[in-house]
Amino acid sequence: MFVRVLRQRFRLSQERLAERSGLSLRTIQRVEAGHRISYASLRALAEVFEVDVDKLERELYAMDKTTEDYKELPLWVRLVLGRGWVSSSRRELIFTEVILVVLGVLLVGVSIADRFWSLIDDPGRSALYSGLLMFMFAYLTSVCIRIGDRYAAWPLLGHTQPRKFFGNSEED
Fold this sequence. Notes:
With 172 residues, the protein is mostly helical. The chain is built from 8 helices and no strands.
């Protein structure tokens, strides 16, 4: 995958890259598909892309390791935490959980206050139900966080995160 990105950045076709590196077209196709190649082939690619061969090797095989570890997570965990219903980092989920709990407390508080002081015409049921709904969503968010912790999924989900909702300052 990384070689494909570099090849496209240099605006080379697979055939042209094979020609410039002295490798076969099949070797270029194999490395782009994620298969391992010899160190000599890596050196030839590193010369074409003008990068350090050790850096190229780290990029190629570190990405595959993360992807393989991610694929080893149970399917339901991948659906819940990555590219499924939840697509946030651990920090963002904790922030969301806190917001939901605070909103739930406020809404239930309004409902209780309305029961005693009749602040609005509605008997407070909508505020109560909304508060309980916020608590339910906070609980589900908490479950997602615990699932990610249990399976040590947070480092593996980095490649599924298209963007951060609450800022880009800190990695989890």
